[in-house]
Amino acid sequence: MAFLELVNLTVAYGKNPPVLKGLNLSVEKGEFVSLLGPSGCGKTTTLRIIAGFLKPIEGRVILNGKDHTNVPPHKRNIGVVFQNYALFPHMDVFENVAFGLRMRKISKAQIEKKVKRALDMVGLSGFENRFPSELSGGQQQRVAIARAIVIEPDLLLMDEPLSNLDANLRAEMRGEIKQLQQNLKITTVYVTHDQSEAIAMSNRIVVMRDGRIEQIGTAQDIFLNPRTSFVASFMGFQWLTSGAVESIEGNFVRVSCGEKVLTARATSEAKIKDRVSLFARPKKMRIVQEEMSNSFEVKLVSVLYQGETSLFIFKLGEKQLSVELDSSVELSGKSKLFVHVPAEDLLAVKEER
Amino acid sequence: MTVALFVALSIMLGPFLIIFFASFEPSSTLRFPPTGFTLDWFRKVMGMSMFQKSLVLSLRIALMASLLSLLLGVPAAYALSRYSFKGKRTIEIIVTSPLIIPGMVAGLALLRFFVLMQVFPIETTLLIGHTAVVLPYAVRSVLSSLVNLPVAIEEAAQSLGAHPLRCFFLVVLPNIKVGIISAFIMAFITSFNNVPISLFLSGPGVNTLPIVMMTYMEYYYNPSIAALSTLLIGLTLAIVLVAQKLLGVSKLV
What are A59-71's pLDDT values in tens digits? Predict the structure, then answer.
């Protein structure tokens, strides 16, 4: 049995439709698992169930072999890091970090030693006597992390801990959190709506949608082989067109879309005559002047300069399509342009129902 | 803007200034502007045993009613801010609106059921009445403090091993201190100044200060009441100022 088991979790508020619908998930000891999805997909609800802040109407939470479903939060040994830090405003940094240890009736000398070590780990030695209001957002989040890990929890839960920080700091903290997690070998469940964050940090990613798990896999697996249209769009793929599977050759399928037949890589088991959507990533498309295999005629709409690369916005039929190309590329809106996607980078995703 | 401010200020401060100056009037009728200066009326009211006795009673009732309203109001506000339950909205309106029932009616009801039927002694009944009047102020003030305190802070404390009750005393209470103190001051002043409830519930030998002042004025129309009022306003101001100084509370209520 895995270290953390969520069995058939169902959660509903009042008479509203359930926010979690029979969710099952296993997390191994020492693993870093991200729950990824748009707001309202149930990722935070799942985290709150694990922490014990919420009770499911059905299902069980099993941690370390013990049923925790009805254990109140203060009796679970779980560290939680919140989006808005949730530091105790009336306590200084030392007292904030020491809080969990004081609840555990640990000797003064031990508390001092442990708090010092935890603050060391997050790079905040010397900040013991500051109050949360005197710290920057990044520093506050570091205190929150120190406060959660100092109790040596069985499990660390993080609820979008970086979303209130600015972009540079976010990238820096990503690395730090990941290192800390690896050094302490602490089992971590991390909630985020930012796919790049999930990819950078996680051993496994759980993509959620409408209270259900859409796909579970390693970062590479989710990034390269999204199995549903939802996961594909969420991971930054763009929908190009749809069609029916004509023939199958190993991982590749021939898809007929109107008068065109395209070759694409199937990420899920597809049968002949199945309806599939074709997706590609902005960086994996090329612009060519003449029609060729796997190409679509497009009209240039605008160009967004991004520094090293530019985002070329095209019109493909009624839809907008962005293609990321080197900034040195110059295109004229007057000549005929085609977008070409290599078969390896054109994904065929089975349509639902 | 300036005119509006001036009008507002004169409406608010005018009566106070008139009373203030009238309390130094040497002749024995209440008049404004005063014709001279004397502190005799202050000396006189401070020496009168009816005022002394009723002041002590008023202070005692105000203190007890404020404490009692906090004892009931803090848990009530906590429940309203943290839990959802059936009829919550209605209960919230009832406990946060300063007395939907007119004070007179409440006073009469309390008189009918507690005093005339001798369920409780008069002072206890007064305390019950005053607590009912000041409770909404307590709930309202504590509630707004609680609404501004993120629930995540309590969840953090609990995830760190604090029992909900311990979490309340170690984390919630210190962070709603300002709300509790302002609730106490509002409740104290409201109870201290209350007339309608006290009017019905005063009995032989048990009279609050405002009631004694009203009764006194029916017989004597001299500056002693003005002097007493000046003293009371001074006392109230002192309480508020001390609270602000001690607690750095810039926005009371």
Answer: 999 999 999 999 9
SS3 state at B42 = helix
Residues of chain B found within 8 Å of residue A118, distances taken between Cβ atoms = none
Query: Residue A160's CB: how many other CB atoms inside 10 A?
Result: 20
C-alpha B115/C-alpha B203 separation (Å) is 9
Residue A182 tokens, joined: 């690896």
Q: What is the CATH class of A4-224?
A: alpha beta
Delimiting residues of CATH 2.40.50.100 domain(s) in chain A: 229-350
Please give, rounded to a whole number of angstroms, the shortest distance from the CA of B66 to a CA of chain A: 25
Domains of chain B are 48-219 (1.10.3720.10)
- pLDDT score, position B99: 60
Determine, for residues B150 and A86 on separate chains, whether the beta-carbon distance falls below 8 Å.
Answer: yes
Residues of B in contact with A79 (CB under 8 A): 159-160
Task: State the complex-level ipTM.
Answer: 0.86
CATH, domain range A229-350: 2.40.50.100
Q: Of the candidates A75, A80, A104, which has its C-beta nearest B156's C-beta?
A: A80
pLDDT tens for each residue of B151-165: 999 999 999 999 999
What's the CA gap between A305 and A109, in Å, rounded?
Answer: 58
